Amino acid sequence: MKITIITVGKIKEKHFTAAIDEYAKRLTKYCNMTMIEVPDEKAPENLSDKEMIQVKDKEGERILSKVKDTQYVITLEIKGKQSTSEEFSEQLSLLGLSGQSDIVFIIGGSLGLSDLVIKRSNHALSFSKMTFPHQLMKVVLLEQIYRAFRIQKNEPYHK
Questions:
Q1: DSSP states of the chain
Q2: CB 3.0 to 4.6 Å from 56: which of 21, 76, 114, 135, for a disulfide?
């Protein structure tokens, strides 16, 4: 299985990059992992609704330029579907069995995802109704992908 994670913005915090590197290393046993960071759009603190849409659209264009037509896209969204770790593992397994073995996860920037990215999504996934920094969500996503593969292989870790 090939998994790509696309995020907006560069992660600079060492504690996040260390955790990301650790899970990426662990995942080499289970899949071909690629991580892509697209630049975030610089914007002032107080944006109008129109300016927010423009920022999200520019970031969305950068994201979509990295997505292939054949890839199965899972966006991380607050309004997405929540699942247990076991259900998430089963979903990844079923995707692979159905021939969808090239999966892209997309984590938006601080303003979220553009409508174009949401429209391209095959599945909207939510880890919580709470808002988290995208740097932390990358760590959580990698951990859950790792956990999903461990569950599939019936290996200890997920309990």
A1: -EEEEEEES----HHHHHHHHHHHHHHTTT-EEEEEEEPPPP--SS--HHHHHHHHHHHHHHHHTT--TTSEEEEEEEEEE---HHHHHHHHHHHHHTT--EEEEEE-BTTB--HHHHHH-SEEE-S-SS---HHHHHHHHHHHHHHHHHHHTT-TT--
A2: 114
In the chain the domains, ranked by start, together with CATH numbers, are 2-152 (3.40.1280.10)
CA-CA distance, 23 to 9, in Å (whole number)?
Answer: 19
pLDDT in tens, 45-98: 889 999 999 999 999 999 999 999 999 999 999 999 999 999 999 999 999 999
Neighbours of 58 (CB within 10 A): 18
| C-alpha Rg value of the chain to the nearest Å | 16
Q: How far apart are the first and last CA of the chain?
A: 24
